[in-house]
Amino acid sequence: MMHLAINNAMIVTDKNIFKGSIGIQDGKVELISQSPIEADKVIQGDGKYLFPGIIDNHVHLNDPGFTWREDFAHGTKAAAIGGVTTIVDMPMQNEPAVSNAEIFEIKAKHVSSASYIDYSFWGALVDYNRSDIKGLRKAGAKAFKSFMCPVGKDYTSLFTGQIRDMLEITKSMDALAGFHCEDYNIIAYEEQKARREGRLSIKDYLKARPLSAEIIATQEILEIAREKGAQVHICHVSHRDVVDMIHEYRNKGVEVSLETCPHYLIFTEEDVIENGNVYKCSPPIREKNNLNLMWEAIENDRIDCIVSDHSPSQIDEKAESLGAFDAWGGISGLQTGLMTMYNEGVVKRGLEPTFIARTMAKRPAELFGLGAFKGQIQIGYDADLVLLDPKAHWEITDESLAYLNKFSAFTRLKGKGKPVMTILRGEIIVENGALSMVERKGQLIRC
Ligand SMILES: [Zn+2]
C-alpha cells in the first residue's frame, strides 16, 4: 500500500489540468491514476488544484551573514507555508560571499539542519574568484550571479571586459551565468546628481534608475553571450521592452532565459510613490501600462520563471527618514508568490493555472539543474506538491508572514486561492497555513 495518496484533485501540469489521484511511496510519485488510490493516509483533493511544489530560484536568506534580516529557519518556514518546496539561495548578503568551494561547504554545514524545504546555492561571479569557479561548480553550484553595478564590499561587480572572460569559464563548465542588469554609468550619475541637488525622495530614486539603464545593460550581456556562445539568465526583468529584446536574441540563437517577480506584475510606480521605501527595489517597479504587457508575455510563454527575489531587511532600514537612496532596496516575497500569482493571473486575468506550473516549477527546475527529479508531477519525481484551494480567500497581514521581519510590500493585499497543504518528498510539512512537523528535513541539492 502507498504511504500517501491525494485523491480526486485537479492536477496542474505546465500544459494542462486533469482530474486525478497521486500515490506516493518513498518520497516519490509512484502512481498517477484517474481513480482514487488506497494508501496509509489519504488526502481528499476534491475541488482543489494540485501543483508541483514551487521552486523559487532567486532568494536571499542571508545565512550565514546578515541574519538579522532573515535566516534559513524563518525564511524556509515562510516558503513552506506559501507552497515553496525548493529554493536556490543567492551568494551575496552572506558573510563571506559564496565565492569558493570552501565557503560553499561552510554555508552548507551552517544551514544543514535549519531548513524546512530543499535548497540549492548560487555561486558568486565576482572579480576576484576566477580561479575558484570550477571548484564551486564541483561543489554543486549550477548558477553564478554577477552584477554590473556595485552591491557590497566583497561582492564586486564585473565590467564588460571581465564578463567576456567569465562567460568562457561558465560555458566550459555547463554553468548558468545570471546577471543583474542595470547600466552603472547611468544610475550612478543620476544618483549623484539627485544627491547634489538634495532630491532624495522615492520619486527621485525612480528617476535615477530609468528603463534605458536596464535595456542597455541587458543588451551588453546578450551581445557577449552571443559572441561567446554562453548560456545566460537575466534576473528580475522589470519591463516588457526587456522581455522583447531578450526574445530577439533568443531568436538569433542565443541561449538566454529570464525571470520576473510578482512585484513587477502587481504594482506600478504610482504604488511605489504612494507607499515609499517599503516598495523600493532594483530595477524599480515600472509604469502602469507595463503591467498588462508583462501579463501578456506570461500568457504567451515569453517569461521562463517567476521568482520572489526575496530581499528582506529590518523595518528601520526602510525608514523614510533615511531618504530613498540610502534605504534598503529589496522586497520580501518568498511566502506570497503562489497566492498572489494565482489571484492576479487566474482570478483577475483569467489565465489557466498552468502558467504557474510552468514558470514557478518546471522551467526553474530545468534551468537550475533540478529538472530530472523536481518541478513536475511525474512518476519517479520527488513528491514535492502543493494543494491550493481556489475558493479560499486570503488577506496578507504582517502577522500572517513567517519571516524574521514581518513586513512586506505585499501586506494588505487581498485575494482568492490559497495554498492549504505543502508536501516535501512525500511528507506533509504544512497544513492549513501552519507547520505540521517540527523536524526540519530540507536537504541541500548539489547540482
Ligand atoms: Zn536578488
From TrEMBL:
Keyword Hydrolase among record annotations: yes
Any one GO molecular function term: zinc ion binding
Record EC number: 3.5.2.5
Organism field: Anaerosacchariphilus polymeriproducens
Alphabetically ordered keywords of this record: Hydrolase, Metal-binding, Zinc
Highest classification ranks of the organism: Bacteria, Bacillati, Bacillota, Clostridia, Lachnospirales
InterPro entries attached to this UniProt entry: Allantoinase, Amidohydro-rel, DHOase/Allantoinase_Hydrolase, Metal-dep_hydrolase_composite, Metal_Hydrolase
Record has Hydrolase as a keyword: yes
Name of the protein described by the UniProt record: allantoinase
UniProt family annotation: Belongs to the metallo-dependent hydrolases superfamily. Hydantoinase/dihydropyrimidinase family. Belongs to the metallo-dependent hydrolases superfamily. Allantoinase family.
